[in-house]
């Protein structure tokens, strides 16, 4: 559903002009990125209305100087599409439109991220307890959300089934696999504190230091958890009242500078973090003269996870095979192999030894790990 939505604006250009696949990818990512920024802009304007223009400006500055949001806002992932729904939901919540927010939450949970049930459960429990959101009755949340769910599934299931060529509800299969079968660990697990010592610091950079200072603000309408935005706001408006306040204000500015430096480092690292895509692109450039020959390329898991996508499969005459767990004897038939590893320290020599009887190393791509 998400892919169809962001591709619709590109249909006229694709239909009437021959456009290389990677340019279609760029166009689609541009549409998705602009959609996320548009949703964020509306959310920030609600922050302006609710907490003041300065709070909204700090929100924009912090997000703009952090790597994570800007890097991921155009990536065609379920989380990115879900982010659109979360921003839209919060915009309606800040505007006091709880029922509309519940309907939006229902749509994006069913389409893109079933785990949002846990998040939205925490968000909507307060308005339910304070009677700002009625559950029952014809105008209650249950009736509205159920009707929204039926409409959403009525569109999603036929469309996705047509695209996948079998009957399915995509996010339902994710829920079944992760929750009912409890098999999500098959895709890897992280240590218990991984989010605290790795994910959050990488996402927030210097702003991580402000998390312990998060404030619980009580409004007449509802309780809102405001972390670094309110802290920065109060520090800034009181910067001239004392020497300590001035030092804190300098810290606010320095923290934004540190964010920019950290973002620059992450950007450099990420540019070297897609060896699979770079390898496939280089191979197709080098063998451009053979684009109409029936050549075969094997793409292993590492390459597939580091930049290879169908948008980079340029030549219709070539076979691009991603079958997992093939034995070396089964790989012998392929003209080219894209082989990588997260754990092998010397992948070049490892590959040369393993496939010396059938293939030779053409080139290697270094990656940041």
UniProtKB/TrEMBL annotation:
Q: Which reaction does it catalyse?
A: an alpha-D-Man-(1->2)-alpha-D-Man-(1->2)-alpha-D-Man-(1->3)-[alpha-D-Man-(1->2)-alpha-D-Man-(1->3)-alpha-D-Man-(1->6)]-beta-D-Man-(1->4)-beta-D-GlcNAc-(1->4)-alpha-D-GlcNAc-diphospho-di-trans,poly-cis-dolichol + a di-trans,poly-cis-dolichyl beta-D-mannosyl phosphate = an alpha-D-Man-(1->2)-alpha-D-Man-(1->2)-alpha-D-Man-(1->3)-[alpha-D-Man-(1->2)-alpha-D-Man-(1->3)-[alpha-D-Man-(1->6)]-alpha-D-Man-(1->6)]-beta-D-Man-(1->4)-beta-D-GlcNAc-(1->4)-alpha-D-GlcNAc-diphospho-di-trans,poly-cis-dolichol + a di-trans,poly-cis-dolichyl phosphate + H(+)
The keyword Glycosyltransferase is annotated on this UniProt entry: yes
- EC number(s) from the headed UniProt entry: 2.4.1.-
Q: Which UniProt keywords apply?
A: Endoplasmic reticulum, Glycosyltransferase, Membrane, Transferase, Transmembrane, Transmembrane helix
The record's top EC class is transferase
Query: What topology does it adopt in the membrane?
Result: Multi-pass membrane protein
Spans traversing the lipid bilayer? 23-44, 110-129, 141-159, 192-213, 220-237, 243-269
Q: Name where it mostly resides.
A: endoplasmic reticulum
GO BP terms: protein N-linked glycosylation
Single Gene Ontology MF annotation: dol-P-Man:Man(7)GlcNAc(2)-PP-Dol alpha-1,6-mannosyltransferase activity
Asked whether the keyword Endoplasmic reticulum is assigned, the reply is yes
Query: Which pathway is this protein engaged in?
Result: Protein modification; protein glycosylation
Intracellular or extracellular location(s) = Endoplasmic reticulum membrane
Q: Which Pfam families match?
A: Glyco_transf_22 (PF03901)
CC terms in the record's Gene Ontology section: endoplasmic reticulum membrane
| Entry function | Mannosyltransferase that operates in the biosynthetic pathway of dolichol-linked oligosaccharides, the glycan precursors employed in protein asparagine (N)-glycosylation. The assembly of dolichol-linked oligosaccharides begins on the cytosolic side of the endoplasmic reticulum membrane and finishes in its lumen. The sequential addition of sugars to dolichol pyrophosphate produces dolichol-linked oligosaccharides containing fourteen sugars, including two GlcNAcs, nine mannoses and three glucoses.
Q: Which family does it belong to?
A: Belongs to the glycosyltransferase 22 family.
Query: What is the name attached to this protein's record?
Result: Mannosyltransferase
Top-down, what is the taxonomic lineage of the species of origin? Answer: Eukaryota, Metazoa, Ecdysozoa, Nematoda, Chromadorea
